[in-house]
Each structure stands twice: as C-alpha cells, then as structure tokens.
Amino acid sequence: MPSESKLDFRELIPDVRQAICAKHEADPQLYDEVDVERVRTDDWSSLRYIKWNRGEVDKCIAQLDACLQWRRQFGVNVRTEADLPHEFIKAGAIFPYGHDSEGRQLIYMRIKVYKKVPQLVEYLRQFLVGVINRVDQESSATGYALVFDLTGVGFSNADMDFLQFLINVLKSYFPYGL
C-alpha cells in the first residue's frame, strides 16, 4: 500500500462511489436513498472512510457498505429528534452548543443528567445518533468536538454499555467526524 503522504486519497473517491452504487443497484432495499445520494454527490461521504482505512479501498468499501446498511436499519434518516420523547431535549443531557477555538461545533453530554432506565435505552441511543448525525452533516469535513461535562457524576450515572455504544457509533459510522 502506498504511504499516506504519497497518495492523494481524493483519487480513490470514484472507485468507492462506483462500488457502493453497484451494491445499491444490486440490492436497493438495503440502503436509504438519502445516504446513497450523499455518497454520489458529496466527496466527504466517501473520503472519511478512505482516510480512516488509510487508502485501503476494499476495507473502505466494506466499512461504508456496513455503515449505509446500519443507517437504514437504525432509521437514521426517517427519524428526527422531534420524533423522540420531548423530555430528552428538556433534560439537556445531549445537545449541540457553540464552537471551539478551531471553529468546530461542540456536542455537550451532561453525564449527571443521565440515568440508565432500561425501557429508555433504545430511545436515548436514537436521540444520541440523531444529534451526532445532524452535527456531522452540518460540520462536514470541518468536524466537531465532544465535551463530557462530568460535574456531579456518581455511580448512578455510570453506564459502560452506553459509552461503548457511543464509541462504536463514532468509530464505525462517523469516522473522522470527531
């Protein structure tokens, strides 16, 4: 594999686009049209996966394909934050607010507000993905920063499953955004 400094990753975008479009044509119900159109028209939608996989096109295509299928299954484009319980917004546990010194948008997570309630875990995950998705699309290649406010946190706020979900979502489905 060529070194990162010698390879212009942008040259690989057409290959990735072509592969994803072929997969979509072969089995369109696996993908959301909004996401496929974004891959067709927005270079960053492919470039972020190319960079994450250091120019290894096969790995990039596999990750992007898995991401697009996950987005369809998870309903990322069919649900908005308004579709979820209004209490999530009112609680202020997760919200975009302001920009850092580099101009990147910030997503705040106030951990003391979080309490693990098994019946609400899936809704909170959907809400989290909705916030990240909106900020990610607004930020594009500029990226965003995540701020954990740990003021007043105790054992009742600890949820390793939710933290693992957050890490997996950022790494697998929104690479190079954070």
TrEMBL record:
It comes from the Eukaryota. GO terms for cellular component: endomembrane system; endoplasmic reticulum-endosome membrane contact site. InterPro entries: CRAL-TRIO_dom, CRAL-TRIO_dom_sf, CRAL/TRIO_N_dom_sf, ER-organelle_contact. Residues 91-176 form the CRAL-TRIO domain. Pfam families: CRAL_TRIO. This is CRAL-TRIO domain-containing protein. It comes from Oppiella nova.
